[in-house]
Amino acid sequence: MTRSEFSRAIAVEFGEAYGRSLVLDLVLTPLGERTAEQALAAGVAPREIWLALCAAMDVPRERWHGAGRPEPKR
Predict the structure, then answer these.
(1) Distance of CA 9 to the CA centre of its chain
(2) What percent of the chain has pLDDT over 90?
(3) 27 forms bridges with which residues in the sheet?
(4) DSSP string spanning the chain?
(5) What CA–CA distance (Å, rounded) separates 65 from 35?
(6) pTM across the whole model
(7) What is the Cα–Cα distance from 61 to 24, expressed in whole angstroms?
(8) CB distance 21 to 34 below 8 Å
């Protein structure tokens, strides 16, 4: 997941305003007690941040793949 895909996934799942608030304000324990914005700045992979955010916000697992895309085939 690229940073632009991360941003798109946030906007699709949470909406522009609320998604931006989550990225800036929600402290995520799995990311070392950092916000998504701080984790991005520290070089954490956007996919790792997206998954931590989905877990924290109780996003249904079928949407964890991001931005309304079908789950990848295995």
Answers:
(1) 7
(2) 73
(3) 35
(4) --HHHHHHHHHHHH-HHHHHHHHHH-EEGGGTSEEHHHHHHTT--HHHHHHHHHHHTT--GGGTTSTTPPPPP-
(5) 20
(6) 0.85
(7) 23
(8) no
